[in-house]
Design goal:
The chain has 210 residues and is of the alpha+beta class. The protein is built from six helices and eleven strands. The longest helix has 18 residues, at 65-82.
Length: 210
């Protein structure tokens, strides 16, 4: 088991990049490339210029880096246990990401394309739903912390876990219990100190984002 984990870590690259550090896409593609593999799947998330009719200037990302890295490692291990994967690379920017630039890049390799494609979708969905990286959308005259739909869907899944026995993000290959496991990256919450208030029933009102 220890040898297996060590081998997985040798073929897994996770980087949370400091502010103003651009993602080197070629670097991560080269990292996962292997002559034994017939497929490389990638995902690149870029800042778009509008959202719901509003002009977007940039996105800004913050993270609890140690836990973010742990969460992504856990997600990668889970992907390896489900699909036949060779190498995995995940990079995420912090700080401002202007329109057109990449905020997150995922690359992974496998012998066959189905494993690579399904695992790539699984990785990005899980990262957006569970990893403590938070996104602020900056407009010309306003800023707002944004919730990701994956996070909202995951929260609903936890609420309805007893009634939900088969939903998942990547088809039937991933069992439902994978998504309902209670771990250190099960749900992510960011508390904005300036806006947090106590509700009438004693619960903390907060901004849950990305």
């Amino acid at each position: 088991m220890e040898k297996k984990m060590a081998a997985e870590e040798e073929k897994t690259l996770i980087e949370i990049l400091e502010e103003s550090t651009l993602i080197d896409i070629i670097k991560y593609i080269n990292y996962v490339q292997d002559p034994e593999c017939g497929a490389i799947a990638t995902f690149s998330s870029t800042t778009r210029d509008t959202f719901e009719g509003k002009t977007v200037v940039e996105l800004r990302y913050e993270a609890y880096v140690p836990m973010a890295v742990r969460c992504i490692k856990s997600i990668c291990s889970l992907a390896r246990s489900t699909w036949n994967l060779n190498s995995i690379a995940v990079a995420h920017c912090l700080g401002p990401v202007p329109v057109g630039e990449t905020s997150i890049f995922i690359a992974l390799s496998s012998i066959h394309r189905v494993d690579a494609l399904d695992a790539c979708k699984f990785l990005i969905d899980e990262i957006k739903a569970t990893v403590p990286i938070w996104k602020k959308e900056v407009h010309a005259n306003a800023e707002i912390w944004k919730e990701n739909k994956e996070f909202l869907e995951r929260r609903a899944d936890f609420v309805n876990v007893d009634q939900d026995s088969g939903r998942n993000c990547c088809g039937q290959k991933v069992q439902a219990e994978v998504f309902h496991q209670k771990s250190f990256c099960a749900l992510k919450v960011r508390v904005d100190d300036e806006k947090a208030t106590e509700t009438s029933n004693g619960e903390l009102a907060h901004a849950e984002i990305e």
